[in-house]
Specification:
The structure is a homodimer of 128-residue chains. The first copy, chain A, is mostly beta strands and 128 residues long. The first copy, chain A, has no helices and eleven strands.
Chain lengths: 128, 128
């Protein structure tokens, strides 16, 4: 569904790559970010052979694989995730993601919103 | 990916219909609910010709269409949603969903978690 004049301002579409706040998370991985009051939604796209840095932040996170395959790293384990997989990352738990032969699209939810992701920019905004 | 002994406890799969807290929201519409600390994830399945009651709640909500088509009602408008569409519902805004000829699967995120959805049961837990 295109984002034309008939669309209400509460409706978005993940194939419209001009919506949201754009961040280049790392080489080969960009995200579109949508900010709510208590939470934040992100659509991250990984090209094949992309390595996301391990990081942590106080905001709770849910990830949901929308397309492709990738490896989710959490608690020091790299787990291959595929169609239909989703995962929960509690506050301050170190995590990361990487792709291998395939590209991937991942939907993430953060609660509360991550302050670093409210602005166009680069990087994962790694917590100190 | 099946939920076998090799799987960590932070990983789920939407095709495993035994995971989560099961609620029958209304005739033709059930949900699997996963509870976090600051947020809650729900996978709702609508059979064709299902009508969800209009309701509201203080928790912010994001919805994301995973499969099929349906009509999202918000601000008094019924908007036909299809592949890739997602939507934002601020606190206390009345909303609802219905399906027509097609079934639909909708991923919802609530922040904070909805207390009514922490338990197996029936209904949307409509705010008074």
């Amino acid at each position: 569904m295109s984002n034309d004049k008939q669309q209400p301002n509460w409706l978005f579409n993940r194939y419209n790559t001009s919506q949201g706040i754009i961040r280049q998370l790392t080489k080969g991985m960009s995200a579109q970010i949508f900010v709510g009051d208590n939470s934040m939604l992100s659509i991250a796209r990984l090209e094949p052979h992309t390595q996301g840095e391990l990081h942590s932040h106080p905001e709770e996170q849910w990830g949901f694989l929308l397309e492709g395959e990738c490896v989710r790293i959490q608690e020091g384990k790299g787990i291959h995730v595929s169609m239909g997989d989703f995962w929960h990352t509690p506050s301050n738990v170190q995590h990361g993601i990487r792709s291998e032969e395939q590209a991937a699209v991942v939907l993430d939810f953060f609660s509360p919103p991550r302050p670093e992701y409210r602005e166009v920019g680069k990087g994962f905004g790694i917590a100190k």
